[in-house]
Specification:
6-stranded parallel β-sheet; 8 helices; single chain
């Protein structure tokens, strides 16, 4: 028996296309769009007339007449990112981990004075994150010496995967401890006070606790102690390293350590979940009964 014998047109009834009905609905939709356009034009004209009547264009907001402290607060609100700023975009699957740029970088294009003032906030109030040494070198070269000297906080990822023995293939990605040590020392970052070092053993998937490489230890101390005249507290965060690694650095530094599998309460709170870490007062049962 042929397969076509199983098909019965009655099982799949056809519905004739009502062209006239579609034309009517399309015309009705076009009329609504035109009506909406006329309403928008009338509202826009009314708004412009009100602006002119009240001298809106004759008396613009005197932003540059505000005190510098007020302008700095506005710059901070517009340019300080809630999490680290990555100078190179991450793959799409990681975009939820961090923002790529500050909220309103276009503010720097207003005029020359705003540019000079705002870029101080842009580079001094944000933490810049790098996943490769080449990204850091390109970024520092692009922003210039003046902006580079304003950077105070950086974060970077270190590939701590051990070399394979017996002539096994080793992948050189420019993120090994010796790569970062060389980049930090020669990068001429003079005012760094906060640093986040994220070490990871790719083979173990970040499950093991790493021992701080001596060459990385030396480079970190060199960068954070490069400007002794800056009395700001030094802050060092180590991710993926063992607890003993923190003891290799000066005791007057603010040092925190965490493992990859541990939740980051600070970043979690900054993502809008602070209520999970706020201490809630126990209700006073007696007061409710009184």
């Amino acid at each position: 028996m042929d397969g076509d014998d199983y098909f019965d047109e009655r099982d799949c009834p056809s519905f004739p296309l009502d062209v006239d009905d579609l034309v009517e609905k399309n015309e009705r939709l076009q009329r609504r769009i035109c009506a909406l356009g006329r309403k928008y034009a009338a509202a826009y004209k009314e708004l412009e007339e009100a602006r002119e009547a009240h001298g809106y264009y004759a008396n613009p907001l005197p932003f540059l007449q505000f005190p510098r402290e007020i302008r700095d607060q506005i710059y901070t609100y517009a340019l300080q990112a809630p999490v680290t700023v990555r100078t190179h975009p991450l793959p799409a699957i990681y975009t939820s981990m961090s923002v790529f740029k500050p909220p309103t970088p276009g503010m720097l294009l207003v005029n020359s004075q705003v540019y000079r003032e705002a870029k101080e906030i842009l580079y001094s109030r944000n933490t810049f994150a790098f996943s490769e040494t080449q990204h850091m070198l390109e970024f520092l070269e692009q922003i210039g010496e003046e902006s580079k000297d304003r950077i105070q906080s950086i974060s970077f990822w270190v590939d701590c995967t051990p070399e394979r023995p017996n002539g096994g293939a080793n992948f050189e990605n420019g993120c090994k401890p010796h790569n970062w040590a060389n980049t930090l020392v020669n990068g001429d970052l003079k005012h760094i006070t906060t640093m986040h070092v994220q070490g990871e053993d790719i083979i173990n998937g970040g499950l093991g606790m790493l021992v701080m490489d001596p060459i990385m230890e030396t480079a970190i101390k060199h960068v954070l102690q490069r400007n002794p005249g800056n009395k700001a507290p030094r802050k060092l965060k180590l991710t993926g390293y063992d607890w003993n690694s923190s003891e290799k650095f000066p005791q007057n530094w603010e040092i925190t350590t965490k493992q990859w599998q541990e939740p980051d309460e600070e970043e979690w709170a900054r993502d809008g979940n602070a209520e999970f870490y706020e201490e809630k007062e126990e209700p006073d049962v007696n007061s409710e009964l009184r």
